[in-house]
Amino acid sequence: MKMKKILGMFLTVAMSVSLIAGCSSNKDASVTSEDKSTTTSDDANKDADSSKTEEASTSGDSFKVAFLPTDMSATFASWLATELKTAFETYDDMSLTVMDSKGELETQLSNLETCVSQEYDYIILLPLEPAAEDDIVAGYIEQGTPVMMINLDDFGVENASSVIANPFDLGTIVAQYAMTQLADDANVVVLLGPSGNTDSIERRRAYEEVLFSKTNITILDEQIGDWEKSKGMELMENWIQVHGDKIDAVISMNDAMAIGAYEAAKAAGVADNIKFFGVDGLADAAVAIDNGEMTATALQDAKVMALDAAGICHEILTGENSEGFEKIQIPVTLITKDNVAEYIERYTDNGMITK
Q1: Where in the sequence does UniProt note compositional bias of the Basic and acidic residues kind (predicted)?
Q2: What is the distance between the alpha carbons of residues 82 and 40, in angstroms, rounded to a whole number?
Q3: Residues with Cβ < 8 Å from 287, sequence gap 6 or more?
Q4: Tens place of pLDDT per residue across the chain (355 aa)
Q5: Residues with Cβ < 8 Å from 147, sequence gap 6 or more?
Q6: Which of 350, 352, 304, 314 is closest to 37 using CA atoms?
Q7: CA distance 147 to 160
Q8: Which residues contact 163 (CB under 8 A, 6 or more apart)?
Q9: In whole angstroms, what is the distance from residue 168 CA to residue 190 CA?
Q10: Fewest C-beta in 10 Å: which of 85, 230, 310, 312?
Q11: Collapsed DSSP state (helix, strand, coil) of residue 65
């Protein structure tokens, strides 16, 4: 198995490196280009029921590639889709189609089937539930359609390509910083991603090993927030009613839920007494850190993922990669008040932050 892997032991190096990256806004930004290989259309795939599809124009000799994100209303999925569009525009012989799964496993599986039946040359999958999709993906690969897992992978399909940021490393890097910011007997609440989600499980495991098991920190409660800002807000409102001013920190498995929790705390007048930790390194989180609202986040860089993913697709489709798959883990970076200025500048330059 071909593997390029950046291990958690190099976190301190990754923390010192400013990754070159670009980002997207919370909402899906369509890309249109007459001269490039990627354009968009809202109704390009009418065969996939209840699926929002953005289709790329294709020339006769182009390789057709599909990207199936979890939900384009989710911040990171939208950012990654935009970065993939940009990355594919640099290739004259590949075109990209984005098929929104709308957070529904049934829709994502239907989109997978559509891609195979319409003879797409390559499928990039941001899976909703890897364990539920592994056998299906393995079957499509065996039939001759190469597949890549991006952003989330349980490594259940040996011959699938993979481009991810190690979720345990993402949790570790924030947990290590949280240890320096919280009292040994602090009270915290924990926001989790969807049930069974590998990223959420591994980030939570990192917090357990690095922080919770090594301190006297009390977990007042932890609940599933499904990566959603609104659910982070709702849960925080409930926690404030139950625990009052006892909450010292919110430990969130992603940025969106952390920001929602902050807004609830701010509305209740208790935000200044609470520290908020997230994961993803989104533009909104960088602004929140710069404003003193969030304490830290870990960047999993969508642009780096997209560039690696497009490169792997091209190598496999052109035969440069003879194995037919490749697995990559990208570096992770801690963002705090000490280095947030460079990310504010970066996100401003690429339009994610507007003044």
Answers
A1: 33-55
A2: 11
A3: 344, 353
A4: 434 333 333 333 333 333 333 333 333 333 333 333 333 333 434 443 434 344 443 344 699 999 999 999 888 999 999 999 999 999 999 999 999 999 999 999 999 999 999 999 999 999 999 999 999 999 999 999 999 999 999 999 999 999 999 999 999 999 999 999 999 999 999 999 999 888 999 999 999 999 999 999 999 999 999 999 999 999 999 999 999 999 999 999 999 999 999 999 999 999 999 999 999 999 999 999 999 999 999 999 999 999 999 999 999 999 999 999 999 999 999 999 999 999 999 999 988 898 7
A5: 122, 123, 124, 125, 137, 140, 141, 157, 160, 161
A6: 314
A7: 5
A8: 148, 149, 150, 151, 305, 308, 309, 312, 327, 328, 330
A9: 16
A10: 230
A11: strand
Distance (Å, rounded) from C-alpha 169 to C-alpha 32?
36
Compute the distance between CA of residue 193 and CA of residue 55 in angstroms, rounded to an integer. Answer: 29
SS3 at position 22: coil
d(CA 52, CA 324): 29
Six-digit token pair at 24?
Answer: 């997207």
How do 333-335 and 297-299 pair as beta strands? antiparallel
Buried b / exposed e along 3-30 (16+ C-beta atoms within 10 A): eeebebeebeebbeeebebbbbbbebee
The one-letter code for the residue type at 324 is G
145, 115 contact by CB (below 8 A): yes
144 φ/ψ sector (left φ>0, alpha ψ -120 to 50, else beta): left
CA 224 to each of CA 150, 190, 268, 297: distance values in angstroms, whole numbers, following the listed order: 23, 9, 22, 19
The per-residue pLDDT for range 212-270, each reduced to its tens digit, is 999 999 999 999 999 999 999 999 999 999 999 999 999 999 999 999 999 999 999 99
Domains along the chain with CATH numbers: 63-165+301-330 (3.40.50.2300), 167-299 (3.40.50.2300)
Tallying the residues shown for the chain, one arrives at 355
